[in-house]
Here is the input.
Amino acid sequence: DKARANYPSITGTGESIAIIDSGVDYANSALGGGFGPGYKVKAGYNFITNNGNPYPVTSGPGAHGSGVADTAGDNLFTNAGYQYQGVAPGANIIALAENNTYEVQSALNWVIANRTKYNIVAINITDFGGGPWNTYVSQLNTLIADGVYITFPSGDNNSYVTTQITSGIVNVGSCNPYSLALSGFSSHGPEVPLLAPGEDMTLPYINSANGQQCIVAGSTGTSWSAPQVAATAALLREINPHLT
Here is the structure.
């Protein structure tokens, strides 16, 4: 709230954040209400169904990617009398839907091919598994060398993280939004350099049972922490495009 009040013009305008996850509910007004040029969710691809529509597939991880995009770049919305918005509400979202490690690799190749076209300055990745940890190290290193800021959630199993896929990525843990204390569920350690709120989050979402839009209150997870940091990188790049 203080940042929004003190710096109302810094919203991430002109920057793009790639959300590599289960898809994004671009039909939701908080995420722009549409897909393509002129909308918040400006571009993307669905590597689950191999087509150009990154709308979430309701089975599997379903609406997870929408929640991630929400914390990164939601427009202002109201729920139960309170106002919410993403960290970088002026930024564009690039939605790249995937459901496993190899599809993450394909999504990163898409970013490499389209980074300049869409001014992609930050990426948040959720890897749902299924492949070796080093499958896409080459792609990460290419993007890091190009100045793209890359975040991953540290995980929700309270583990101690001492390694990472490659140097230059940022694992983000969860803290309590009120006390700022480390969340009890959050993985942590020397390779988790940053925390962001991941408890008691309010998110526009999709009901996986019926595909209907809803708002989830009180959600928890480092999945909601990491994209806030990616979005902050977009704010910083708006302030100074030469920051590395």
